[in-house]
Amino acid sequence: QVQPVESGGGLVQPGGSLRLSCTVSGPMLNYYVIGWFRQAPGKGREGVSCISFGDSSTYYSDSVKGRFAISRENDKRTTYLQMNSLKPEDTAVYYCALSTWSARALGDKILAPDMYAAWGQGTQVTVSS
User: Fold this and answer.
1) CA distance linking residue 34 with residue 122, whole number of Å
2) Could you read off the pLDDT tens digit of each residue along the chain, which spans 129 residues?
3) Spatial distance between the Cα atoms of 20 and 119, rounded to a whole number of angstroms
4) 16 in Cβ contact with 127 (< 8 Å)
5) What is the DSSP letter of 85?
6) SS3 call for 54
7) Least buried of 51, 68, 98, 124, by fewest C-beta within 10 Å?
8) What is the pLDDT of residue 34?
9) Cα–Cα distance between 95 and 108 in angstroms, integer?
10) CA Rg, the chain, in Å?
11) Shortest CA distance to 4 belongs to which of 125, 99, 70, 90?
12) pLDDT of residue 70
């Protein structure tokens, strides 16, 4: 059974940086995309970024484009989310999850949470002075 585990969250001041990690155990053969999502208190889960296993294409939500960067280790089991120029509105629990759909099949739903399965437990990111 695939199990992602997130780490790297914490408290950071506005304008600061954090790097989140997601390490996946278990068989990954049936998964094609790994994504980062977040959920702020009282809000729904939001897609932040994802990367395709096949060609390493990356995708970002408009709210983080230019500030966040997703990357993967060569062994493909660890994915990172480098978050720079953090804002208070980035405060949320951050999750990683895998999709059994290819990036091409996902199309404009590539950051839609309901297209992903095998969720981790999340890591808290708090941006505050």
Assistant:
1) 14
2) 899 999 999 999 999 999 999 999 999 899 999 999 999 999 999 999 999 998 899 999 999 999 999 999 877 799 999 999 999 999 999 999 999 999 999 999 999 999 999 999 999 999 999
3) 15
4) yes
5) S
6) coil
7) 124
8) 96
9) 20
10) 14
11) 99
12) 98
Q: Residue 80's beta-bridge partner residues?
A: 21, 71
Which of 55, 113, 126, 117 minimizes the C-alpha distance to 86? Answer: 126
**Are the beta carbons of 80 and 70 closer than 8 angstroms?**
yes
Q: Which residue has the tokens 């590539």?
A: 110
Q: 97 CB contacts (<8 Å, ≥6 apart)?
A: 4, 34, 35, 37, 113, 116, 117, 118, 119, 120
Rounded Cα–Cα distance for residues 114 and 28 (Å): 19
Nearest alpha-carbon partner for 124 in 3, 5, 7: 7
Strand order in the sheet with 68-72: 3-7, 18-25, 78-83, 68-72
Residue 51 pairs in a beta bridge with 34, 58
Q: What are phi and psi of 67, to 5 degrees?
A: -115, -35
* pLDDT attached to residue 75: 77
Exposure of 60 in the CB half-sphere (CA atoms within 13 A): 13
Q: Alpha-carbon distance 95 to 8, whole Å?
A: 11
